[in-house]
Amino acid sequence: MEQLLADAQEKLRQENLPESFKLSYSIDSDSFMSGRGVADLQRQSLNYGYSSSLIGQTPYGNVDAAVAGNRTSSGTYRVSNVRAGLTNGHYDQFKDFTIRALDFTPVFPSYGFPSSDLRGILLSAPMFNKTLSYTSFWGAIPGGDFTQLAQSSGLSPTKKAWLEGIGVNYKPARYINFKSFYAHSYGPERSQPVLTSDVSGFGMDYLLGHFNLDAQMAYDHLESISYSAMASMTLPKLRVGFTTTDSDKKFASLLGGNPGGGSMNQALTINYRPVSDVTISNSFSATLDKVFGNPNEPGRRNYNSNTRLNWEIDPHNELQLGYTFDDQIGSISPAVVETKEVTFRKKIFLFRKLSTFLSYQNSKSKNYSSPAQDFNNNRIIAGVSARLLYDIYGYYRKEMNL
Fold first, then answer.
1. Which residues pair with 129 in a beta bridge?
2. How far is it, in rounded angstroms, from Cα 190 to Cα 80?
3. Rounded Cα distance, 305 and 342, in Å
4. pLDDT tens sequence across 73-111
5. Phi, psi of 12 (to 5 degrees)
């Protein structure tokens, strides 16, 4: 009996030991080749991407850190991202908090919340038995309008422009949640013109059995308010969702610059699983572009439909079918694009388990303002991946346009 008790105590002690730190490293390459045929292909560029991460448990919570960079054909090394954080943190009376430092993206589930990568610090924590929770952040905005990569070797730069804010969640009951946020920007290097330095928003979620309702709004502290609402129904084999959004074309961004546009959008999504190994999904949307609409057909909406079927034939074979129809007649550059896709995935067991796939895609485009851009493209994509050693994986992909 004493031995059984000792064994049980030892097993419990082993289960409570923190997990060891894990270090991962990844390298990938990308090359572009061109030529009149396969035999005379010439490499035009070659880039390498590197990333490394470290995760593990400490007495104060789960720690993670990561760095990502690349090397160009000219031999320049550039570091685009450095991240570090603590999740499920606990110290004294404080529990379940999260801290992010260096590069991060503030995330708060509210419509209109500014989306931007930052370099700074973020703190998220619950209060009052998780009835109330908050996320606060401060950070510098990345340099460059389209890329964070430095023009020379080293760490990617930031602007003399900063973004700070706070988001608050209040959940008085299991089925209802209120959320609000406020964000502020400042600094001489914000994109010009700077129309507003503040934005705020408010919303609520309501969950009752199989039904979920969500309504949100955002205000730019000038004269514009934008709205979003969502309703969904979830059953054992079926999920249906409907979303409507009305974005004011004068809504100003606190990151600076002229208003990016305005639109009215409605979207319907359906996911159906008639049997355990078959999934059918469809998304359909209608969008009215308030700024860059078709001048010859004012008020004409753009329509997009995406249908997919996934069949898991057995544990080692899978078939995927896809069809996309994108009607952009209501835009300033009217066009229609149709895409059909067939993908077969197979797991092969040789000296290693190999995950392979073969895909065929056909895309047709009809451009009504520039017929020279019409195309009918066929391509075949094949790839294989395998676990080489321990947690080291290899991956190869080949694409051919016909």
1. none
2. 20
3. 17
4. 677 777 888 889 998 888 888 888 899 999 888 877 777
5. -65, -40
